[in-house]
Amino acid sequence: xxxxxxxxxxxxxxxxxxxxxxxxxxxxxxxxxxxxxxxxxxxxxxxxxxxxxxxxxxxxxxxxxxxxxxxxxxxxxxxxxxxxxxxxxxxxxxxxxxxxxxxxxxxxxxxxxxxxxxxxxxxxxxxxxxx
Length: 131
Fold this sequence. Notes:
Elements: H1 14-65, E1 94-96, E2 104-108, E3 121-125
Antiparallel strand pairs: 1-2, 2-3
């Protein structure tokens, strides 16, 4: 009588485990990249909202004082804000008054923090042509 040895397979081979780990690594990289892109978009949007809030505070200041504060003096309107006039990257917003093409400008230097680059976020308050 011939004896047959049946070899039952238990567990996974090293190659199978490495393939699964590789696939998980690729998937987590793709997800991570998408999360970081969304985080950057959220910071840009949060900065745009902060700039709009500062612009409203400046308009309120003008109603109370008949003129805007001098350039760089956002500290004069911080009482109208919930804290300092900073962007989502925790850098102070730049404020210029008067401006040649508009009533005032508020600028965030964006993610890179470098002035006059592609990622800057700029608000230009149009001239009030009613008066």
